[in-house]
Amino acid sequence: MTRREVEQCRDEILLRSHPVSFRRPAPRDNGPAAVLQPPRPDGVRSFRSRRGRSGEVAWACWASVADRAPWARGWAGAAGTLVPVTHGTLALAAAPSRRAAAAVGQLLRFGWLQVQCCLFAAAIFAGLAASSVVPLPIARYDALVLYGLAVTVVFYLLRLETWREVAVIGAFHLIGLALEVYKVNAGSWSYPEDAWAMIGGVPLYSGFMYAAVGSYLCQAFRRFDLRVTNFRWVPAVLLAVAVYANFYTHHVLPDVRWLIAAGFVVALWRSRVFYTVGSRRYAMPLTVSFVLIGFFLWVAENAATFLGAWQYPDQAEIWRMVHTGKWGSWALLVSLSFVLVAAVKAREGRFYGAAGAQPQVELARLDERAG
């Protein structure tokens, strides 16, 4: 193997590997007939460093050299990563640090995308916080209704929400408002302030809390480029109806929320949600995403009750943390909400969008025939 062949091989490795801090050593003139002998079995060759001391560096790469030189396979770190060895010691410290930096970068990108998905919810919470300290000419809950409508219009005009997403948000508002009226009259929670725009003791602005969940899901589909596979449409719809019904019936009948939750786990066992962060694609079980979103909604509920958006009976005299059992309720509500959004996304390319476009929700085969 000539010097030129070795250098071409090394350059190919550098191009195919992840970015590595590397300074190519200055070429030496060893005469026209100089030939670099094949590497020793340990993969080491010598060169003169820029400080004048001789060093020994071994270059190995899974994707390239290891295919040609069996001795290199033991030196490779991660696939496609160039690994230097100086003074006979594997310089593996740089690879973990690069991976850690990449992981932190991905986490920051993921967080930023989540912030963008929560813009509608953040706007509603900003209104709650501001209205609790700023004097208003009308009742606070009435002002929040006008504020919520204004936020919805602004988001549509700024193209942060499409008209279809606004329609989904409106459906969430109505579904949530109906549930609120029943729950408030059943004594589950209450709204301590008076207002003109109220139905059955429930201020109309309360529906925007549920609309924020719908907005988050719609935004997540777009910003994370979500793709859901093996979504079993028929059992998911039946379970979603059961979730909504149980919110009403558990006051007079046995509470079966945990059975319904188990049903979701079984029905969606093979369903996966794929999402993109930066240039990388990830996946997780769909039911796990419901639990995670439910947790953050429970955290948001604690913040909302602290701001006086509503209150539970045990918070009448002094604020205290919402019971952790509500986490499960929010996870079930997310499951119901996802089914509503999936009903729209599964029809992409048929009822809307570009003709023949791949739907973001891929139905399981049996359910696809049923649909």
TrEMBL record:
Chain residue ranges for the region called Disordered: 21-49
Residues passing through the membrane, by range: 107-132, 138-158, 165-184, 196-218, 230-250, 256-275, 327-344
Keyword Mitochondrion: no
Keyword Signal assigned: no
Keyword entries, A-Z: Membrane, Transmembrane, Transmembrane helix
Protein name: DUF817 domain-containing protein
Organism: Occultella gossypii
Lineage: Bacteria, Bacillati, Actinomycetota, Actinomycetes, Micrococcales
